[in-house]
Write a structure and sequence with these properties.
heterodimer, A: 125 residues, mainly beta, Immunoglobulin-like, four-stranded antiparallel beta sheet, 9 strands, 5% helix, B: 154 residues, alpha+beta, 2 domains, 1 helix
C-alpha cells in the first residue's frame, strides 16, 4: 500500500510538493509535571530534527540521513522516508519550555506543564 | 485526552471521514508493509519484534543494515556461523511511572538472521552503530569474488 501523504491532511489542500512521510512509533508518558514523548526515528541525527509548535499543534519531523552503503540491494525492508507526526497540544503545556534531544534514533521531547496554576491575588493600582 | 493525534476539526464531515479512512490506511500500512509488525514475525523467531533489515552487495562486500533505534551498543549481539549472520539483542524498557499514556514501541528480545549468498572473510567483518542504525560490512572471501577470466579463442 502507498504511504499516506500527511502533508495534505495538515493543510487540507493539494500541495505542489508531494512529500510522503511515515509516522514514527511513539510512546507518550504522562508525569506529574507534564508529558514525555519518545519517537523512534532511526537514521535521523540532530540536524535532521525539526520540532515546531504552530496553532496549538506540536509537529515533530525527522529527516533521514542517506544510507551510506555501496552496491545493489539484494533485500530491502527499510523505507527511506522522512518521519512526521502532528499532535494537538494540551493547553496546559508551556510551549516555551519544550525541550528535545535525540540519541541513537530515539527522539525525546519534554513537554512540561506551565507552573502558573497557583492562585494569585492581583492588587489594584 | 490531552495529547491526541492530529485531526482537523474545521473541515467538513465528509473530509473528516476521508481523514479517518486515511488513518485506517495508515494502520493497514503498518500491518502489511512494515516489518516491525508483530503479525509478520520472522519465521523461527520467538521475539515480539523484528527490526527492518536490508542487504546490499557490491563486488567486494555485503552490507547488512538494520534499524535498531534506542539500543545500547553492548545490548547488540552479532554472530557469524556457517555463512549465516545473526543479529540479536534486547531493547530494555526503563522503569518509568505507572501512568503510561500510549505506547506503540516494542521492547524485549529480538533476533534476525541473514544467509549470505557467498562465503565471507569472517576476520574482516566490521560493525558500526550510529543514529539507531546498525551497519555490518562483510568482505567477501577471496574465492567468492568475481574474477575476470581471459578466454583466448584460437
Amino acid at each position: 500500500m502507498n504511504n499516506v501523504s500527511q502533508e495534505n491532511q495538515k493543510t487540507g489542500q493539494q500541495s505542489t510538493e508531494q512529500t510522503a512521510y511515515v509516522a514514527p512509533y511513539v510512546e507518550i508518558e504522562a508525569t506529574d509535571s507534564g508529558y514525555v514523548l519518545y519517537a523512534e526515528m532511526p537514521g535521523v541525527n540532530r540536524e535532521g530534527i525539526e520540532i515546531t509548535v504552530e496553532e496549538g499543534n506540536l509537529i515533530v519531523a525527522g529527516h533521514r540521513q542517506p544510507l551510506a552503503v555501496s552496491g545493489e540491494p539484494l533485500h530491502r525492508e527499510t523505507r527511506q522516508l522522512d518521519f512526521r507526526r502532528v499532535y494537538e497540544l494540551d493547553p496546559s503545556i508551556d510551549a516555551n519550555k519544550i525541550s528535545a534531544r535525540i540519541e541513537q534514533g530515539i527522539l525525546t521531547v519534554n513537554l512540561p506543564k506551565a507552573e502558573n496554576l497557583n492562585p494569585r491575588r492581583i492588587a489594584l493600582d | 485526552m490531552n495529547i491526541i493525534r492530529y485531526q482537523n476539526q474545521s473541515r467538513s464531515d465528509l473530509a473528516q471521514a476521508f481523514d479517518r479512512f486515511a488513518a485506517l490506511r495508515d494502520e493497514m500500512d503498518r500491518v502489511f508493509d512494515n516489518s516491525y509488525s508483530p503479525v509478520f514475525r520472522t519465521p523461527g523467531s520467538f521475539s515480539r519484534w523484528a527490526p527492518a533489515l536490508d542487504v546490499y552487495q557490491d563486488k567486494d562486500q555485503f552490507t547488512v543494515v538494520a534499524e535498531l533505534p534506542g539500543l545500547k551498543k553492548e545490548d547488540i549481539e552479532l554472530s557469524l556461523q556457517n555463512g549465516v549472520l545473526t543479529i540479536s539483542g534486547e531493547r530494555k524498557q526503563e522503569k518509568k511511572s505507572e501512568e503510561g499514556y500510549r505506547n506503540e514501541r516494542f521492547f524485549g528480545r529480538f533476533q534476525r538472521s541473514v544467509t549470505l549468498p557467498t562465503s565471507v572473510d569472517s576476520s574482516k567483518v566490521k560493525a558500526t552503530y550510529e543514529d539507531g542504525i546498525l551497519k555490518v560490512v562483510l568482505p567477501k572471501a577471496e574465492e567468492a569474488k568475481p574474477k575476470k577470466i581471459e578466454v583466448s579463442v584460437g
